[in-house]
Write a structure and sequence with these properties.
Layout (H helix, E strand, L loop, with lengths): L4 E5 L9 H8 L4 E7 L1 H4 L3 H20 L5 E4 L2 H12 L3 E5 L4 H16 L3 E5 L21 H8 L39 H4 L7 H14 L4 H4 L12 H5 L5 H13 L3 H22 L24 H8 L5 H13 L4 H14 L4 H11 L5 H12 L14 H8 L4 H6 L9 H9 L19 H13 L4
Amino acid sequence: MRDPVIWWVRKDLRLSDNPALAAALDAGGPVIPVFVLDEVFESYGAAPLWRFGLGVEEFAKSLDAAGSRLICRRGSAAAVLLDVAAETGARTVRWGRAYDAPQVARDKAVKVALQKAGIDGASIAGGVLFEPWSVQTKAGAHFQVFSPFWRAVERIDVETTMPRPGRLPAPATWATSEDVTGWGLSRPMRRGASVVVRHVTIGEDAARDRLASFAEKRMDDYGERRDYPAEAATSRISEHLAWGEISPATCWRAAVRPAREGSQGANSFLKELAWREFAYHLAWHTPWILERNWREGWDRFPWSMDDGTTEVRAWRQGRTGVRLVDAAMRELYVTGYMHNRARMIVASFLTKHLVTHWRVGQRWFEDCLVDWDPASNAMGWQWTAGCGPDAAPYFRIFNPDAQQKKFDGDGAYVRRWIAEGEANPSANALSYFDAIPESWALSPTDAYPEPVVNLAEGRARALAAYRSRSF
């Protein structure tokens, strides 16, 4: 029998269309799937770390059904992989390539450690549709604007790499594994976990079912209806993409044929997938986008970095007195998700009406989103704040009241998430008070707050700050 091959499982919790798994199988030996909860993953916020853990548990069940098992350990990735190799005799390690700076640095260190030990370690493309260096301008540079990036990729054929294998070849000897449930990954969620869990779907099968349902029932109307937060008009596959429970190639192929046959909804869906690709394109070529202003001149903009102000606390708690903003922030706390239109509105409100640095909002999203993605999250915040590549100009300031009239005219979304003042508040609105920390001391019988800022005055303040900028 050939030596076993370690498949280092990371944010690719699937058996279908998984190039890293395909590479491990191609090596010809038994496959040992290994998941390592290392310092990079441990640094994730409460909701994404918890959701990642649920995905790992579900994926372990899929491997069991395929005659395999998932070896789970906590610690340094390099040390764990070397230990498992020593215990099993594995001389080959394969894993899915990452593109954000913390994972890239970790992976480089792992590759060096494996090479020193005489072990063949290699990363395999599969987490994105287009490798960041494979898409270039005519001048051979990376793209900084989405529209030409989209034109460069929209006609590229994307192929899936492999169907879901029925069985995985198992080694004669398995390494020992730790119990994921004993890692306490839900602890930072506190009592919120029991509420948010009602709104998440977990695993590869759920991801593929969700995509199939979207393609059959909602894709054609996606372009027209996706901006209405009260409607179930979007795919809701973002959490599955974030943890690799479905591949971007699978999603792309579900829409590319109807798009080329003239479906505007399918074409809009492909564009949203391309925005994710653009985010990783930028994260690779300009890695500072993840944690500081992409445009250096904005370092001198008079944003507040204070995340403890009364206004910022109200923003986090969904108590700003601006109903659409508050509804969105409560949706986030109850479900771990927020509609994309709402994400832009709350980000604009924080960075412009409250003149608060986008990093303050980015960190809160990182703590609360079950679909948190480092590249997309950073690009989204910088786009709205005005300091990122291809960004909305700073003077484009969303008026939440106008946005509500346009996209939630009947108030269905607001009523779904705000209980105060309602004679018969919805179950979702009431569940917010079960999810939040008791220390917030909030009740559905509280009076709804007055606005923390007059929208016209907040807009004027933001524009004054922009006009007085020193860049």
